[in-house]
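Hey team,

Filing this mostly as a record. A colleague (T.K.) asked me to run one chain through the structure pipeline before their review meeting, and I want the input and output archived in the tracker in case anyone asks later how it was produced. No errors, nothing strange. Just documentation.

Input sequence:
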Amino acid sequence: MSRRHWVRAAIYVVLLLALVGGRGFMLAQALGGRYPLSELVFDVAALGLIIVGLRLFDAGVKRGLARLIPQDTRLRRGATRTLHALIVLGVGFPFLLVTLQFHPQRIAPGGTPKNVGLDYRDVAFTADGLRLSGWFIPAREPRRPVVLVAHGFNANKENFLLPIVLVNQLGYDALLFDFRAHGASGGRASTFGLKEAADVKAAHDWIRRTHPGRPVYALAYSMGASATVHAAAAHGLFERRVLDSTFGDLERVARATLLRPFGPLARPLWNVGRFWGWVWTGADVDRHRPERVIRALADRPLLLIHGTRDRLIPHTETLRLYEATGRRAELWLVPDRDHVQTVDHPEYRDRLRAFFAS
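Output structure:
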């Protein structure tokens, strides 16, 4: 390997460190957590291997074309450019997009409930063989129901201490945990709530084992709420459910937000991304449509909440969920609130109090 190649490799490494590290640092700053060095090394190595794999694939295509069209003619150059465009649009871009989405950068919690004046203890349980990390926060009235709080995508349990404070003020014990591939829990791949339904069930079962005979309520947000829908529909979990800022159909949300700039290519990109997601996780995210199963949750008290200025998941998604229950749920659309910014609304605690006590 020549000196020129070593210099080029070093430049690539520096660029990857800057790109991945910068993104991780900014995300950690936004979430108030830490981006550990071990995670930076893993993320850079993983992205580097992916890029090398795509380069090798590209080289293989070039060699194949050279054999098919031996002469370096305009035809071969045109075919090469066409195939490059198809590879970038049909393989490379969807592959990288899906990889980044299904493998969120892990941000470790930078604080604990002690930071907001609450006692807690560390707990752990398993789902699908993965170790999940949680905090149990006791209240003053130990015989009341226990509230399971489920966070959203690309977050961790520290980011949802405000709901814990509200729940504690209402006198309820609470369990707050990190989903797989998030925070201090195990796993590297996220499925936006599909496989995370097993995490919700594991957390629910932990409460049942450690606090037998006590009702369990759910207070779930965004991805955590979609996972709660699937878990509750499949296993009849939770006596009361609060779902905040979630969606009814993952494909519809992706095409309306992330894939919207691609216009008519949004559907093909979704299908290619769906394939790569299945390769990475073994899960078909096309099945991630909570609106198809949420009717099963209408047999018990259900509260749906969404901010009307949510730029990540349109509030119309919660309206669709409401309709899918046969309108057998309470609906609260919070004016002028963005994604999961409903929690700091002055009425939020009173709404929870009334719903949990009704």
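Quick notes for T.K.: The mean pLDDT is 87. The chain is about 45% helix and 15% strand.
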